[in-house]
Amino acid sequence: MEKLPKITIPVLVGVILLIIIIAKSSVTISSGHAGVLYQTFGNGVVTDQPPLGEGFHIIAPWNRVFVYEIRQQELSEKMQVLSSNGLEIKLDASAWYQPVSADVAKLHQEKGENYLQRVIQPAIRSAARSVVGRYTPEQLYSSKRDAIQSEIYEETKKILDNQYIQLNEVLVRDVTLPPAIKDAIERKLRQEQESLEYEFRLEKATKEAQKVRIEAQGKADANAILSASLTDKVLQDKGIDATLELAKSQNAKVVIVGSGDSGLPLILGNN
């Protein structure tokens, strides 16, 4: 077997070292991620430059890159909190969040890669306890779910706005009350519904009776006005008008003028 030329060995070593250097000096950032550069022989985390964007990058082999996902992510939390009267409520909620891309280096420097456990979870738990503690179990069960969702979002956002994290939404999926409390609330709601239904029927009947009374009173008032206006003179005039109309009829008749009880003409005979 022939020996390799002496010059070949250094070349091979150089190629191997070059491959190692290139491997250590390159980094590829995936879609939806950003890289935080750490300079080992510099000032550490680079915060005065934009983070490394998506794609291929060459860095010094002694430096490091910490990759963060900057897309929207979801945190699901199941918490036990207390209502305003001290009853334990189970809350199932989700938070949609993402690191602020431009501040991801500061996030890494001040909070670290486990910022979810250090910042976001404590923030949403604190906000949930504070908000739920303002309401009774009945309010939480019936009409205040949208309100507590909005309030938890606002309080959590106030905390995270200064932590280089963008909070997009908080969703309350479920509010679970103790079974005994839930049953009592449902019974109360049914009773209230039945009471409202009874009041509606009673009000409807009252309005119908009032309508009948108004119509009867209207008829009575109309009759009274009519009776007051029908004097003897008016009746005679009406009788004369009616007699003249009958006299115009084509049927055979006999008109006796002045023979009625009130001096009105009498009409006798027809075909």
- Tell me the overall shape: elongated
Spatial gap, N to C terminus: 155 Å
Strand percentage: 15-25%
SS elements, strand count: 10
Radius of gyration: 47 Å
- CATH homology group of the largest domain: Band 7 domain
Return the CATH architecture of the largest domain: 2-Layer Sandwich
Per the CATH scheme, the topology name of the largest domain is: Tetrahydropterin Synthase, Chain A
Helix content: 40-55%
The overall pLDDT average reads 80
Order of helices and strands: HEEEEEEEHHHHEHHEE
Largest sheet: 3 strands, antiparallel
CATH top-level class of the largest domain? Alpha Beta
- Read across the widest sheet, the strand sequence of neighbours is 3-2-5
Number of helices: 7
Structural class: alpha+beta
Total of domains: 3
Question: Poorly predicted ranges (pLDDT <50, ≥5 residues)?
Answer: none
